[in-house]
Amino acid sequence: MKASFLKFAAAALAVLAMAGCAHQQHNDYSKFRAEDPHSILVVPVVNRSVDVTAPDYFLSSISIPLVERGYYVFPVNLVKQVMADDGLSDSDMVHEQEPQRLASLFGADSIMYISIERWDARYVVLATTVTVSLDYTLKSGRTGETLWTNHQTLQYSPNNNSGGGIAGLIAQAIVAAVQKAAPDYMPLAYQANNQALYAKGTGLPAGPYHGLYGKDKDTY
After folding, report:
1. What is the DSSP letter of 172?
2. Which of 69, 75, 106, 29 is closest to 208 using CA atoms?
3. Is residue 51 within 8 Å of residue 74, measured between CB atoms?
4. What's this model's pTM, rounded to 2 decimal places?
């Protein structure tokens, strides 16, 4: 299983590297720098995919990379429970609230809104393509202004090397069917988060609890 994961990660990194070479850009960080957020409130994820389990799985992947970027992140499960107790159990309803109201519940500097646009596996002939597509938006908890946005779409279609002949084709079909029935989205989710937060020119600048805080203006 470890070897399979490493192959998956290597393939995903290769896709990301090619995407980065093909399209370089640089965001405007003036509002972000002026606001200088120290803490991030990750609110419940809006799910536009057909997989009802996607939000809970995804939420488990986002806190650690944000902490590693140097920000204090409110515990996502606690946030979800507090908002439910405050009548905000529906994620769409949460995203429609004024950022200032959400921030006031926790004393947060900024709010991270994430929507899952795709979280699916599609079977075509002898292969299954797994897709994760995510929108990220960070807003000020003081003014409600948008400080940072990012979009990531990653796909993975494993190469099934099962030999030739009829037996090989049957084996490929079986593997693809199994992957479609129980695909593993999390490696793509982890890669999407890392690309969103770390990519030069478009990622999230280092926060106050990171050694590069205030020193990465040439990169972001």
Report:
1. H
2. 69
3. no
4. 0.80
Compute the distance between CA of residue 201 and CA of residue 27 in angstroms, rounded to an integer. 6
Q: For residues 60 and 76, give the distance between their C-alpha atoms in angstroms, rounded to a whole number.
A: 8
Confidence (pLDDT) at 13: 44
Show contacts of 1-5: CB within 8 Å, 24+ apart. 5/187
Q: Could you tell me the two tokens for 47?
A: 């799910």
Class of residue 102 by CB neighbours under 10 A (exposed 0-12, middle 13-18, buried 19+) = buried
Best CA proximity match to 118, nearest among 175, 189, 177, 17: 189
Q: pLDDT tens across 47-84, in order?
A: 999 999 999 999 999 999 999 999 999 999 999 999 99
Contact assessment for residue 155 and residue 88, using Cβ atoms and an 8 Å cutoff: no
Q: What number does CATH give the domain 2-194?
A: 3.40.50.10610
Q: Which two tokens stand for residue 177?
A: 């069917």
Alpha-carbon span 53 to 183, nearest angstrom: 12
Which residues of the chain have a pLDDT value below 70? 1-25, 124-126, 158-182
- Domain extents for the chain? 2-194
Q: How far apart are CA 152 and CA 191, in angstroms?
A: 9
Q: 175, exposed or middle or buried, with CB in 10 Å at 0-12, 13-18, 19+? A: middle
